[in-house]
Amino acid sequence: MYALTAASGQAFLYNSVTFGYAVIPTTFFAVPEGHTGYYFAVIAVGNFLGPLLLGHLFDSVGRKPVIAGTYIGSGVLLFGTAYLFQRGALDALTMTACWTAVLFLASAGASAAHLTVSEIFPLETRALCIAFFYAVGTAIGGISGPLLFNGLVSSGTPADTTLAFCTGAGLMVAAGLVEAAVGVRAERRSLESLAAPLSAVTSGSGTP
Questions:
Q1: Left (φ > 0), alpha (ψ -120 to 50) or beta: where does 187 sit?
Q2: pTM metric for this prediction
Q3: Is pLDDT at 201 greater than 60 in this prediction?
Q4: What domains does the chain contain, in order, with CATH numbers?
Q5: 31, 67, 113, 118 from 64: Cα distances, Å
């Protein structure tokens, strides 16, 4: 459950932004289509800086509280963005600033969540498990996200775009709550202490 929600929540958010964000400035703020790349570049900077500046907290403060905090925090910021957008308080620049802040937190949380997921399975199955949960989570969030997000945003109705924002925000908050409830404290621990290799379990049971 933890691995699946962590993967699907961030996949929904990231794929929605990747495939649908350009529609927002062109539809609602009259930004020429050829200029949307500049806004993506700003968002990409925030996405890069999140893990760079917050990464040390996942081992110093702890994976569980910081992953939960970044997921929930990004969801709360996105709810705030939806509220401001619905009120007509944003323009192309401030909207991009809001999304940059959202992905600043989300990127840090997602990177640590993926790392933790890869550590909680036995050595012999680790690669297969992370590939499985990443693929399934990306299929759930990565396919539904762009379809829903782009469909709502392309309608040109602010209420539909607000709903798209709130859907992504709700998924991130839900994933953060799951992390807070069942997440693994993986910081400063060896991989073997998190999940004993199957060979060690077999040897310990006396099975040849």
A1: beta
A2: 0.84
A3: no
A4: 2-26+36-183 (1.20.1250.20)
A5: 40, 5, 9, 15
